[in-house]
């Protein structure tokens, strides 16, 4: 195969005792299947699909080497021969597809959500409920031995290597940094003492597994917390790890408690490749870079410019297991691109739900959400070409149905056409691009500019209504004032607003609109790093710089009827980023607001019993949606099989994750 398209990405990597087929590492992700019933059968199918898709080296989700290292009391542990036998189903499945796989060993340390938490010192993390016990010398030595034993068992289980989780603020990282290590013995104090723990783990692992076994060390190259490591310290540890027997160094960016976004969609693509590059000349073993790399071109550019030897992508393989094969076939436009939303992966993992993917609901459901060929070629009409309608149409066509997809607009995509215009959500255009191609490839007959009635739909075996939503207009006196505009009109028509704007409704849409209204113009990567106080010289501890917040020249008020915190948006792992962004830009966040009236003077409100007049130029309504569905009852009365999905079914908070899954699940059941 001629690899002219992405020659650096698809080049083999010789590790001496083994060769990886390309420079792609599938980064570690916890799926929730690790602990579930029948989970290993499903995990095997999940990893096998990615190996079949061409990944060079897969890294599993984190498994603890002992009981106290578990993230939750019932989290996955890998410390027995029985566990090794169970894992054989995974390694066999990956090897049958020509892939290689490493087991990640992760000790939670003070991040453990249980009273059994232990750490270098008894210092509670700001995101934890439990204060850890300070580890005794005996516990430290037993933990080192537990890592080594688990690595030996991983080899027994058929794994090609292990990844030692030394970043993101987990136990190994906790020993390295003064932030969490206040010991005065041989395991604390000087930097030399603080890095003894990771080095002893690597030495013990290498002694147990032999020379022909991959040891990846996930090294925190940029802690992004106070009292974090300096770059000079990172270099010292990297060189010592190489000497101790590490095969590959993988980049870690930011602790979980850091208040800087590192992987959310607001983060520019490949925003931290420069961090890996700064270490590149210091060691001779391969370096992996990571975070927000989601296209073959971005990945190849990193490698061709010498910033790293491999690229790690995790969520992109939830979005599309065939990512590497498509790149190899020069079919990048056919890749279902990860949009960095976190809504179905990390947001699920943090509440103990099974991970999946907003743009690919079959991720982690490979054995359950199966699109089997249909026995009878029936005619299906889908009304509405938004996310739900497109996903349903593609899935139904993949099964062999004849599908007509109607939309009254002259384009597909529905609300995604609005979302992609929000700063930090530009990736949504990739999803429209992907589904547009799939609609053509699967033979869906797309009829744009069609307003259908029940009379147009009588010849179909199945009719699916996916007509989406329209903005809800609240009953506020004066809501018809020219100052008032709904969010759809604002974004769709690119309406120019004045310098004082009130946004009514602080759900996800209100947060997005407020972000859009206060966004700095033409911000590049350097300016983004500067906005979040990231030290590009890496001279400061943890890579942090004191910085001034960017205050927007436009004055914005974001408000909600409900009392309490305002401006977080819907995402568990991204909500704090939204709120922090708005606070940094000077947006006034108001909860418990009553909207009294709107007139030429502005918006009259009552907050905590006090009347206020906001002298605004414009008022943007982000007050929810109502369904635009009017066909289903008429069709049902004619005896036509009809299903309603997406916003037409539930016009609550706009939720692309729910509607795309609903569309695919319905297509699978037809």
Automatic annotation (TrEMBL):
It holds the Pfam family Oxidored_FMN. The keyword Isomerase does not apply. Coiled coil: none annotated. Its EC number is 1.3.1.34. InterPro entries: Aldolase_TIM (IPR013785), FAD/NAD-bd_sf (IPR036188), FAD/NAD-binding_dom (IPR023753), NADH:flavin_oxidoreductase (IPR051793), OxRdtase_FMN_N (IPR001155). Its cofactor is FMN; [4Fe-4S] cluster. Residues 9-333 form the NADH:flavin oxidoreductase/NADH oxidase N-terminal domain. Gene3D superfamilies: Aldolase class I (3.20.20.70), FAD/NAD(P)-binding domain (3.50.50.60), NAD(P)-binding Rossmann-like Domain (3.40.50.720). Keywords: Flavoprotein, FMN, Iron, Iron-sulfur, Metal-binding, Oxidoreductase. Residues 379-643 form the FAD/NAD(P)-binding domain. CDD domains: DCR_FMN. It is an enzyme of class 1 (oxidoreductase). In the N-terminal section; belongs to the NADH:flavin oxidoreductase/NADH oxidase family. This is NADPH-dependent 2,4-dienoyl-CoA reductase. It comes from Photobacterium leiognathi.
């Amino acid at each position: 195969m001629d690899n002219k398209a992405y020659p650096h990405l698809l080049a083999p990597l010789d590790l001496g005792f083994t060769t990886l087929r390309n420079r792609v590492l599938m980064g570690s992700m916890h799926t929730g299947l690790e602990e579930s019933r029948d989970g290993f059968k499903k995990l095997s199918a999940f990893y096998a699909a990615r190996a079949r898709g061409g990944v060079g080296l897969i890294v599993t989700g984190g498994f603890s080497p002992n009981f106290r290292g578990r993230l939750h009391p019932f989290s996955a542990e890998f410390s027995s021969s029985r566990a090794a036998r169970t894992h054989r189903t995974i390694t066999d499945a990956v090897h049958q597809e020509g892939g290689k796989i490493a087991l990640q060993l992760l000790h939670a340390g003070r991040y453990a959500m249980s009273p059994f938490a232990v750490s270098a010192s008894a210092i509670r993390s700001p995101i934890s409920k439990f204060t850890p016990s300070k580890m005794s010398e005996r516990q430290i030595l037993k933990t080192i031995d537990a890592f080594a034993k688990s690595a030996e068992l991983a080899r027994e289980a058929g794994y090609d290597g292990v990844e030692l989780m030394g970043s993101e603020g987990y136990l190994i990282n906790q020993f390295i940094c003064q932030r969490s290590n206040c010991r005065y013995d041989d395991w604390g104090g000087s930097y030399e003492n603080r890095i003894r723990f990771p080095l002893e783990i690597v030495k013990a692992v290498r002694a147990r597994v032999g020379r022909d076994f991959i040891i990846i060390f996930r090294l925190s190259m940029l802690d992004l917390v106070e009292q974090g490591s300096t770059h000079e310290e990172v270099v010292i540890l990297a060189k010592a790890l190489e000497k101790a027997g590490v095969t590959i160094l993988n980049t870690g960016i930011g602790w979980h408690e850091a208040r800087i976004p590192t992987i959310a969609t607001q983060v520019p693509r490949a925003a931290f490749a420069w961090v890996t590059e700064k270490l590149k000349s210091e060691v001779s073993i391969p370096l992996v870079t990571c975070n927000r790399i989601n296209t073959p071109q971005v990945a190849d550019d990193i490698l061709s410019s010498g910033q790293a030897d491999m690229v790690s992508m995790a969520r992109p393989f939830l979005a599309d297991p065939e990512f590497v094969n498509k790149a190899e076939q020069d079919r990048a436009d056919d890749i279902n691109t990860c949009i960095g939303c976190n809504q179905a992966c990390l947001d699920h993992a943090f509440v103990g739900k099974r991970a999946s993917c907003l743009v690919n609901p079959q991720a982690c459901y490979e054995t359950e959400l199966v699109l089997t060929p249909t026995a009878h070629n029936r005619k299906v009409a889908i009304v509405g070409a938004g996310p739900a309608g497109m996903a349903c149409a593609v899935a139904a066509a993949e099964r062999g149905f004849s599908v007509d997809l109607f939309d009254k607009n002259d384009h597909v995509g529905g609300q995604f056409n609005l979302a992609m215009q929000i700063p930090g959500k530009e990736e949504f255009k990739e999803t429209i691009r992907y589904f547009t191609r799939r609609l053509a490839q699967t033979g869906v007959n797309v009829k744009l500019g069609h307003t259908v009635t029940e009379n147009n739909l009588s010849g179909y075996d199945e009719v699916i209504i996916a007509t989406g939503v329209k903005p809800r207009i609240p009953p506020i006196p004066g809501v018809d004032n020219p100052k008032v505009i709904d969010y759809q009109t604002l974004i769709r028509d690119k309406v120019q607003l004045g310098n004082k704007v009130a946004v009514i409704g602080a759900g996800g849409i209100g947060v997005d609109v407020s972000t859009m209204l206060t966004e700095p113009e033409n911000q590049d990567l350097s300016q983004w790093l500067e906005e979040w106080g990231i030290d590009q010289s890496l001279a400061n501890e943890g890579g942090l710089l004191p910085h001034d917040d960017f205050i927007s020249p436009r004055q914005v008020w974001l408000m909600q009827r409900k009392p309490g915190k305002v401006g977080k948006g819907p995402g568990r792992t991204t909500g704090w980023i939204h709120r922090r962004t708005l606070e940094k830009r000077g947006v006034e966040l108001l909860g418990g607001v009553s909207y009294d009236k709107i007139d030429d003077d502005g918006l009259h409100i009552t907050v905590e019993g006090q009347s206020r007049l906001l002298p605004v130029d414009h008022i943007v309504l982000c007050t929810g949606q109502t369904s635009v569905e009017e066909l289903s009852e008429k069709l049902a009365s004619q005896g036509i099989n009809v299903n309603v999905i997406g916003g037409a079914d539930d016009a609550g908070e706009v939720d692309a994750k729910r509607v795309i899954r609903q569309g695919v699940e319905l297509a699978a059941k037809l």
